[in-house]
Structure formats: structure tokens, C-alpha cells
């Protein structure tokens, strides 16, 4: 390994609506638009399906940041699933702040299936945000455990 410490590459989990955000990510890929490869997309039928436990489990398993991306407001394919997801995300951000973990490691975004540029922008901006925040403070990576 070189003398310079390797730059931190965050692990990002994106819970995405299959009708909108996942389709936007897919369109970005088909259009050869580049976004960070460290964003792992998880396709859901609706972001209303996102349970707070899914998000907490992602952090427990080592995610440095999580974002939920659903349909545009008032355009959810399941009427109000995106609003339900937003309420859960806003609540969980407060809980993460209270625990000292940091609510900034979690975010909610809204986009349509045609907004591939928005997905790419979100992926880049959120990755940079998490890079500035640093690694998940409650997760010990295998390399960190082996060094000590």
C-alpha cells in the first residue's frame, strides 16, 4: 500500500421505486450516463414498502449512507406510498440524530422514470455527502478489524 491513505469510498444503498427511481437508474445505465459504482440499488414495488427496519439493517450491515428514491409527489403509482416513505425517512433521520449516528446519512428523493439525469445527480451528490461524513461510525470493516 502506498504512503497515502486510500480515499474512503462509501457504500451507499438506494431503496428505489421500480416504476420511477429504479427505471431512472436503468435509463441512466442504458444511456451510458456514469454514476458512482458504490451505489447499490434495491428495487421495490413502491417506496411505501420501505420499512424503517430495512434502512437500519442496511446500516447494520455496513452501509455508510442510505437514500430512498420514489415517484414524484402526487404521482405515486400506489397513490401515497412515496408520502409514507417520506414520513418514515424524516422520522428515522431524527432518531439517527438522537443516537449520534447522524440523520444526514439518510435522505429521501423524488423523481420520474424519465429523470435519469436526476438519478445520476442524486447518486453523485449523496456519495460526496457521505464521503465528507466518513465511514459508518458503528460498523467495523473487516480490514479495520484485521489491522487492530
Task: Report on this structure.
It is a single chain. The protein is an alpha/beta fold. It has one domain (12-147): Rossmann fold (3-Layer(aba) Sandwich). Helices cover 41% and strands 16% of the residues. It has helices at 21-30, 52-60, 81-98, 116-133, 142-147, and strands at 12-17, 39-44, 65-70, 106-110. α3 links the parallel β3 and β4 (106-110).
Which keywords apply here?
alpha/beta; disordered N terminus; 5 helices; 16% strand; 148 residues; Rossmann fold
Quick description:
This protein is α/β, with parallel strands linked by helices and 148 residues long. Helix content is 41%, strand content 16%.
Low-confidence stretches: 1-5
Mind telling me which CATH architecture this is? 3-Layer(aba) Sandwich
CATH class type: Alpha Beta
- Pattern of helices and strands: EHEHEHEHH
Instruction: State the secondary-structure class.
Output: alpha/beta
Range of helix content: 40-55%
Strand content: 15-25%
Number of strands: 4
Give the topology:
Layout: E1 12-17, H1 21-30, E2 39-44, H2 52-60, E3 65-70, H3 81-98, E4 106-110, H4 116-133, H5 142-147
Parallel strand pairs: 1-2, 1-3, 3-4
